[in-house]
Structures are given as structure tokens and as C-alpha cells.
Amino acid sequence: MTTGRDRIRLRKPTASSVALDLTFLALVGLSVFGFFAIDTKGLKTGPAAAKLLSDLVKMFAHPVAKHFSLAEAIWAMLLTLGLAFLTTLLGAFLAIILSSFAAKNLSKPAVSNALKLLVAFVRAVPTILWVLIFAIGAGLGSVAAVVGMTFHSFAYLLKAYSESFEEVGGDVVEALKASGANWTQIVCQAVVPSSMSYIVSWTFMRFEINFANAVAMGAAAGAGGIGYELFMASGFYFNIGEVGFITYLILFVAILLELGAMRLKARQHVQR
Amino acid sequence: MAILTIKSLTKYYKDLRALSEVSLKVKAGEFVTVIGRSGAGKSTLLRCVNRMIEPSSGLIEFDGIDMRSLGRRDLRKARTRIGMIFQHFNLVPRQTVIENVLHGRLGYKSTLQGSFGIYSDEEKSHAVDVLARLGLAEQMHKRCDQLSGGQKQRVGIARSLVQDPRLILCDEPIASLDPSSAKTIMDHLHRISRDMKITILMNLHQVDVAIKYSDRIIGIREGGIVFDDEPRRLKKKIVAEIYGSDADDILFEESPE
Q1: Per-residue pLDDT band at A221 (split at 50, 70, 90)
Q2: CATH number of the domain that residue A131 is part of
Q3: B115 contacts in A (CB within 8 Å)?
Q4: pLDDT in the model for residue B250
């Protein structure tokens, strides 16, 4: 060798990796530019940051509940959890019925593609927008929130369920088909039981998402619950301590849900 | 009497010809093994019999029924008399052994009863008997994911037996088993064909196993039959032709004549 040590590359640059690198560089450049291009309207960075810090300290170091009692807060939290639970349940029910028509191994390609396209469209629009769209008919409030959130949950779970059906179903579907079983029997006896662990974990995952959504719905769509109290505390009473209190409450419930999900997963892991 | 007659069976996958003009007859109670390289068309041939794969042309007659003329309903009915067992067992892992075995009865049941898994006492006791005969009586209530490979395959056999089949199609039944489990499975299948007079049509990779158990061996190469005779007539030269390699490269003992 004449050039001494040649570097051994682990990867060869391909068209797609070059494109990825260029995109990344462009994004970094834009971010830096954006930071300098912010119009601060004469706001001084130093004092503003100090003010923010003091507000944050007030919010999280001195949480108080002034306009409602603890019992009322818990009731509002239950309302929010109820909204999340109801919409997940309704969405899951619709999704489980229709997902066997959307799974490629159980359905005709045309039906499967049509359903998947439809739910892809529903999923592309955020939950909050669906709620606002349904609010046109139902008026802002809990009805619009339930319908809109159910709609989006259904689309999300249909994709999740039908993909797990496609993944686990294959072998058993073939075996039962060969023994003369009909479509409904195969779905009920083989496909759903074999994908049960996926169904449970996806549904719980959606419940967690719906909890966060339900908080937002309370604030944005007037669906009530803890989200509404948060909206009132921050936008109406300007009570920073109360915002802190509600935030802690939401955080507490979110951690409980997360722990629940972990236990659920651990149990299934043993069973699988 | 022939239970299965195949005439000029041809199957195309797009432009690729998987089977060309295959003709064969299988007698009731016969144990027939199909050997050939991977991709020679063994699996396609087996699946054309119960129309899990639609043939392109040709005749398939099972138990006096022209399989290709059947509509969906009648095809399901005909399939109830054809059992099938698979290389990867194809069981529902989260259900118990007996639940999986009873799946073999679904073809005989109404949609509602089948979907909710409601079985009659006769069906249940039949399933228990079959399990006992296969030495799985104690595993009855275990979940299938707790079983060993050999046990899973026995559940697969039990599932096909509760169908009251006249023919069992076996697609590489021992390809993912250790040698001792493989022997158990082959012994069970052999007993089933001998004692219950159920016809067996099996794909195999192991030539020596095929010779030991079969009444007849069919060799397939590139979608066509190149050998169809008793095991003792299978010579090294023919095996080499079936597998398309040098005779010396094949692990196999000729039977002395």
C-alpha cells in the first residue's frame, strides 16, 4: 500500500443517505436562522427569563386550589378519565368489528385498501379538529368531544388491530381454512384470540392518549372535567398556583396510568 | 379404489410454471410421500388438492368429488374430510390444547356455534379420546405455547383427526422437529394410516424417512413427476436426478435387492 492506512468504511453513501444528510443540515441551518430572526418586540431576554423562572417557581413550588375543593378536583378528574374511557371503549368496539375487514389476510384487497385509506384520512386530521368539526352539528361541549374523540380512536385502533391480525393470523387462518371453517369462525376462534395481547396493549395505549386528549378537550372544547378547570385557572382567574396544582394532579394520574400499562405488559410478557 | 385422482394438473404463478401436467392416483389407506428440492412444486401440489391454492388447469377428484367444480360452500364441506398438518403446526398459541383440537370441528358447525366455540359432548369426548391416543391426555388443559415442538405437532395431528378425515395432507410435518420427536410423529402418522385406514399424502425432505415409512414415493422435479413407485425401487441415480446433484452428495442408503 502506498497511501498508508486506508479507512475502511462501514457504510457506503447511497442516494437516500445523502438526501437524509442534506435534509438534516438544512433543518439545522433553518433552526439557527429562525432563532436570530425572532421579533422580540423590545423584550429584554435577561429580565424576561428571570420573570419566567419566578412564575414557574410560583406555579410548582406553591400549588394551591383556590376556586374548588379537593373533592371537586377529584370529581373533575374522574369526569376526564370517564371521557377518555368512554371514547376508547366506543372506538375499540367499532374498530374490532371492522378491522377484520381491513386485514389483508382476511379480506378482499379492494375492501381492505378502501378501509385503510379512509382511516388514514381520519387519522391525518388531529383529534381536536374532529371535535371542532363535530361541534358544528352538536355544539361545543361534551357531545362533540365524545363523537370526535371516538372517531379518531376508531381510526387509530383499526389500523393497530388490523395490522396485528395480519401479523399473527396467517398460519392459523390457513389451518382453519383448510379444515373447512368459515370466515366468521376463523376470525372469532383463531384471529382474535391469537392477537389478544396486541389488542389489549394497543387499546390501553390509546386510553393513555385519550386521557391527554380529554384534558385538552376540557380546555378547548368545553367538555368539562379537569381540563376546563385548568382553562379557568390560567385564562380566567390568572391563578398560577392553581395551574400548578392541576398540573400535579394530571401528572399523578398519568404516572398511575403508565404504571398500569407497565404491569399489563409485564403480565402479558410472561404469558406469551 | 382410488380416493384421490389427479389428472394433468398444471399451476402457473404469473408466468412461472410450478406444476406441469401432473397425474397421479392415490389408493384409499395408502401412505404416499412426495420428495423433491425446495421449490420443485411439492407444496403447491399438496395445496392444490384442497384448493388452498387454485390450480390453473387439470382435474382433481377426491372421494368421487370433482374438487374444482365446487362452489365456496361445497368446497368447505369437502375440506372437512381432508385434514392438513403443517411444518409450523399453525396452532393458536394462547388457547389450550383441547380448544385447538376442537377447531378441527368448526367445518361441521353452524357459524354461531363455531364462532362462540360451543361444542357438543360427543365432540368433546371424541377430542379427549384422540388426545389420549396421541399421548397428550395430561396436556389437555395446557396452553399450546407451553408445549414442545413434538407435542405441538401431535396437537396438529389431533386437530386433523377430529375432522374424521379420509385423507390427511402433511406439509413437511417433521422439518422443524428434533430427530426423536420426528420419529414419534412419523410413527403416529404411520399408525393412523395403518389402523384407521386414513390416506396420507406427505411432503418430505428426508429421503431415508420417506423410504422407511411410505408405501409409495413420488419424486418431483421442476413441477413434473420423475419417479412414482415403491420405496425399494428408489435408486441413488434416481434420487440424484430428483435433487439435481451428484449421487455421491446425497445422504441416503439404497435398499439392497
Answers
A1: confident
A2: 1.10.3720.10
A3: 184-185, 187-189
A4: 64
- Write down the pLDDT at residue A184: 92
Question: A117 and A107 in contact (C-beta within 8 Å)?
Answer: no
Asked if residue B139 lies in contact with residue B147, where contact means CB atoms within 8 angstroms, the answer is yes
pLDDT tens-digit series, residues B224-253: 999 999 988 888 888 888 888 765 666 666
Mutation site for A-interface testing, chosen from B50, B81, B90 by largest number of A Cβ within 10 Å: B90
**Are the beta carbons of B106 and A189 separated by less than 8 Å?**
yes
Q: What is the mean pLDDT of chain B?
A: 90
Alpha carbon distance A49, A46 (integer Å): 5
Q: In whole angstroms, how far apart are CA A250 and each of B4, B44, B91?
A: 68, 58, 44
Q: Is B91 in contact with A189 (Cβ distance < 8 A)?
A: no
Q: Which residues have a Cβ under 8 Å from the Cβ of B124 and sit 6 or more positions away?
A: B98, B102
Number of domain units in chain A: 1
Does residue A52 belong to any structural domain of this protein?
Answer: no
Q: Which residues in chain B touch residue A187, judged by CB atoms under 8 angstroms apart?
A: 115
The total number of residues written for chain B in this structure: 257
pLDDT at B199 over 70: yes
Q: Could you tell me how far CA A230 lies from the centroid of its own chain?
A: 20
Contacts of B46 (CB under 8 A, 6+ apart): B34, B169, B171, B201, B203
Handedness of CA A216, A219, A225, A230 (dihedral sign): positive
The residue range of the domain holding A201 is: 66-271
